[in-house]
Write a structure and sequence with these properties.
Length: 281
Amino acid sequence: MKKLIALILTLALTLSLTAAFADTIKIGVPDDTTNEARALQLLADNGVIQLKEGAGETATKADVIADGIEIVEVQADLLVNQLPDLDYAIINSNFVLDALDAGFEINDALLVEAADKYLPRANVIAVNGNNVDAPLTRALIAAATSQQVKDYIEATYSGAVLSVVENPTDGYDPDVDYGALAGSEIIIAATPAPHAQILEVVKEILAAKDITLKIEVFTGYTEENPAVDAGDAYANYFQHQPYLDDYVKETGGNVVSVAIIHTEPMGLYGGRQADLGALGK
């Protein structure tokens, strides 16, 4: 009899734990410091979770207060592929664009972060600190902050990418001697969408002055800054300022932002869940 009771209790406990696990909502977030904190803040702003007092720009899943929710840290560029195994995921819009271009089916964002959160994280073009004031850098800045680029962003991305350039140029800097730069080449490291796509417009602008923009496409976040530091690339275009600040702080690198181009609102996308019902929303 004792064995039977013990067996029943064990079975009951197993079923209870299984049910609890089944009810747990898994939400994927980027695993890099600045983007994870940003994703968690999006959840907190919408009442999905609470964050411990004092948790800010370095918040991690250890700072999360929530019942029935498991925060899953995933490399940012892999989150779309992990959606089928998650209830939700918070994804940078550039990776959503990559997925759509590749034919991946993904619904519209269920939640989108507020402007006061994504605007300070606008994406920048950065160069080696030794080249900040170089004529070639100024030519690159003028082309990247042009009306042509601004128009392209607004016409192409339907709000998933937003230009933050307030005073666009005609593509050129009147104080640069373009004749002296003719025949020059700029190697720029960039992630695929939207960065490399936007740079195709920049490439055309510079080509009119016989400056070649060579776009080196990377699919992750780890190589672009070291490439500029080492001189293997003249510039890069893939990151927001907080991410660059973290890189410089951690490595002592000499990479400096020279132009702010666009911002990408972060969104919560459904995986196993099609709406916010599982979150009580």
